[in-house]
Design brief:
Blueprint: H1 4-9, H2 20-26, E1 29-34, E2 40-43, E3 46-49, E4 58-64, E5 67-74, E6 81-83, H3 97-102, H4 110-125, H5 132-137
Antiparallel strand pairs: 1-4, 2-3, 4-5, 5-6
Length: 151
């Protein structure tokens, strides 16, 4: 009878070690979450930014229960990516690529056109100010009186 240690050492096949990524993925948890209209999910009471491209869709959140500072987002048919907790800062980020593709760049502004029209109406209604320089420069000159000459 052989002991397990002897059987292990006498096996002709090489030891095949598992990849670290495979082991990490095997012991992670998964949960389904729905992306809201601004492109975020709420996971354990903390908002995570997923992207507005996925608004309204369900995604799978893969996480390590010991460390939720980053979570992996998986959607069937696309490569997985990492999401971090949402930090609302002083400035906003760039718009999503899908939104830029869907909407053409505006060539005019209806709001600006309306404001310009109202400004023109106000200026037409406003009484013009009197500039005395123009009045003085454009005044008719009275004819000169000639004085009688003494001879």
């Amino acid at each position: 009878m052989r002991t397990p240690a002897v059987a292990y050492r006498s096996d002709p096949q090489a030891i095949r070690w598992a990849e670290p990524d495979t082991l990490t993925h095997a012991f992670q948890y998964a949960k389904t979450a729905k992306v809201n209209k601004v492109g975020c999910i709420s996971f354990r009471g903390t908002p995570y930014e997923v992207g507005v491209d996925w608004a309204g869709q369900s995604v799978t959140v893969v996480y390590d229960p010991g460390d939720v500072s980053t979570v992996t987002i998986e959607v069937p048919g696309t490569p997985s990516w990492t999401a971090r907790p949402l930090v609302i800062g002083e400035y906003t980020g760039q718009r999503g690529a899908a939104r830029a593709k869907c909407q053409p760049a505006p060539d005019h502004s209806r709001l600006l056109a309306a404001a310009q029209k109202r400004q023109a109406q106000r200026q037409a209604r406003q009484a013009p100010a009197l500039a005395y320089r123009q009045v003085w420069a454009n005044r008719p000159t009275p004819p000169r009186k000639e004085e009688p000459q003494d001879d």
